Amino acid sequence: MITELGHFALILAFCLTLPQAFFGLAGAAYRKPHWMAVTHRAAAGQFVFAGVAFACLSYSFYVNDFSVLYVAQNSNSALPTFYRFSAVWGAHEGSLLLWLFVQAAWTVSVAAFSRNMPHAMTSRVLGVLGVISAGFALFILTTSNPFERLWPAAMDGRDLNPLLQDPGLAIHPPMLYTGYVGFSVPFAFAVAAMLEGKLDSMWARWVRPWATIAWMFLTIGISLGGWWAYYELGWGGWWAWDPVENASFMPWLVGTALIHSLAVTEKRGLFKSWTLLLSISAFSLSLLGTFLVRSGIIESVHAFASDPSRGLFILVFLGICIGAALTLYAWRAPLFRSQAGFAPISRESFLLFNNVLLVAAAALILIGTLYPLFLDAFGLAKISVGPPYFAIAFLIPMLPLVFLLAPGMHASWKKASFGRIKTTLTMLLIVAIIAGIAIPVAVYGWRSIISAAGIVAALWVAFSALIEPVGRLRKGQSLSAGVLGMSVAHLGLAVFILGATTVESYSEEADLSLRPGQSAEHAGFVFTMNSLREIDGPNYRAVESEIVITRDGEQVTVLHPQKRVYRVQTMPMTEAGIDSSWNHDLFIAMGDHLGNGAWSVRLQYKPMVLFIWLGAFIAAMGGLISTFDRRYRQRVHAEVKVGSVADAKSA
Amino acid sequence: MTPRRRRMVLVGLIVLGVAGAVTLALTAFQENLLYYYTPSDVTAGKAPSDRVFRVGGMVTEGSFQRAPGSLEARFVLTDYAQNVTVSYTGVLPDLFREGQGIIARGKLGQEGMFIAEEVLAKHDENYMPPDVADTLRKGKDKRVTTPIPTATVEQDAE
Predict the structure, then answer these.
(1) pTM of the full structure
(2) Do both B71 and B1 map to the same domain?
């Protein structure tokens, strides 16, 4: 009964997306306030019914209703309650329902927080969002219905994929989707502006908070994914340049370019058509990512089981969205010429470089990800592009980007002379070079010129990001949320680079054979396997080893890595033992039983790995802080005043 | 320097930088292209002897060997037409089993032995890497199609 209710709610949500799309777009085009008002109601209704559908599916999981096919496939009566809820988005159908719900949530947020915008603009944005929701709702109803019944009902479910039975992964998909879907809002704003034929600083000011919040969620989502891969996939890697990881990273890069280009559009009225193109690209890449993941054409730990009809639907939908948006762009872009100029050394130039380099990085990753697919599709060859390509292709544009960032933060608009800050920046660069080379060499030894450059760049950016907030605080001046957010986000980037560079340069890894009572030395630590024992978990069995780690005869910690076998899916899983401290992780994963009571184990020493996630989190918080800037809430009064003054003059 | 000259120098520098970056990226791309071969390709000598490549197939039942306590494992990879022996030292992935489709990345060593640097297995027991599925289809086709002369009949009909 509940299931049918959920199915019905889903159909209603779909039905409501149609008036939302039609009355939103047509109402604005024909200037009919009543039509535009319908759009708001329809959007609210869509949100309510998508929510009801989602709640019904969650309830089916909660009560273990194995007469629902999707529940039977992805849950089990022995599955802990917490994971029954996260199992809702554990596979294709349910994760799409989550997608739709998140889309509806963004839509009502736009409706709720856009009182300051002209009616026609809001209405168009909601209309475009309605078209996107309609596409996804139709996709769920026709190819991926989570409410399908299974008759006769299964006695018990096939259980959730053990890899997903983890708190990190329970929140990774919602965050990631919120980011992915969030870029539909700048996309909708871009289409709305092109339909309207008008794009000014106000428009950029409306879009900026949305783009930043979407970017923030995507940042958190991607870094949670890296964290999960690090401890749960069992092998201590945090980024593998896997096609699906790339699929989430490309919208992030373009989204990062977008939030910077929006700054120029808002402050100086420049880069207008470029901003539009980035808004379209960021969302298109999100859809492309969805296509890659859902169609099963790529091979990856993340890929969902393949189904050609699903791939085809998304491909067609992608074609319609991108095709329509780009056609509109080709037609309307000439309207958005910018008149103002800027000197070769100015904030505009720095942001231009930022955009070119970010987009270049995204393009290089896109080539590496899609090239094997093309060759395969045309039957030319079966190849894959190795991770080293991505590492190099990514570093080429990113190193100059990071070095330009430190002065770029302090460049003024139009023409930058830097003035007194020039000496400060130079001094900080010298300090960064000395500290960035001396400290790592003293602690870990010399590795390569690239890792030295990475650490120097990170330190310089960190110092440079602190100049403004520290300077203002010392003088007792106030700091706007925008400037504070920018400084915090760039500080986060520096922390991230520091962590990533150190981990990549100085990790030490060894595969060994250990039996109880035996010790091995690795990276200055002595690992002793004390004992092995069998464990019974709620839905798995495990072999657990106790490993004592000592350094210079003193005990550092005791770890308990496990090798689990989940009962229902009979799937072995590695549960790594990790000892985290601020400057390094010690990581132990159990491999297989080698005979004679010995096990293969992987020992790893990971310096500064915590900084990777800390940095990403700080950057995300920077994004959040910047959206609290006062000017995002003040817009209407300014507009009204200008209008009334103009009226007074003409009158 | 006149502003015009200065601009030309700037543009020249940018062009040089972009050209350098593109060259580096292309080199990296070329060096990191991993070709995929089947056990049949490898035994036929189509795979390179000095380059890293990938080979995929099913792990033959009963072929897995390891000296007790040793990290080195040996197993036979098959596409049901030809076999390649693979040697791997280290921790095998969780889902590595006999009868499972896997992909190994590495180089050819002595006497046709494939020395793997990495072994990949999918986290799904029913999963078969698309490459492996293709290989198997081809392998089976070969076995089935050789004795059947229908192809000529069809050609005649056309």
Answers:
(1) 0.90
(2) no
Q: How far apart are CA A216 and CA A219, in angstroms?
A: 5
- B33-37 vs A584-595, strand pairing mode: unpaired
As a whole number of angstroms, the distance between CA A125 and CA A188 comes to 5
Would B22 be classed as within a structural domain? yes
Phi then psi for residue A592, to 5 deg, are -120, 165
Q: Do A301 and B122 touch (CB under 8 A)?
A: yes
Helix or strand (DSSP H, E) at A126? helix A119-143
With a cut of 50, list the residues of chain B below it in pLDDT.
124-127, 141-158
Whether B29 and B51 map to the same domain: the answer is no
From the number of C-beta atoms within 10 Å of its C-beta (0-12, 13-18, 19+), residue A145 rates as middle
pLDDT of residue A417 exceeding 60, the answer is yes
- Pairwise CB contact (< 8 Å): B71 & A594: yes
Instruction: Show residues of chain A in contact with B36, CB under 8 Å.
Output: 381-384
Interval A225-277: pLDDT, tens? 999 889 887 677 899 888 888 999 999 999 999 999 999 999 998 899 999 99
Quickly list H helices, A378-518: 387-408, 421-443, 449-474, 481-506
Q: Look up residue B61 and give its DSSP letter.
A: T
CA distance A305 to chain B (A): 8
Are β-strands A577-581 and A598-607 bridged in parallel, bridged antiparallel, or unpaired? unpaired
Same domain, B53 and B100: yes
Q: Which domain holds residue B135?
A: 36-146
What average pLDDT score do residues A65-75 get?
93
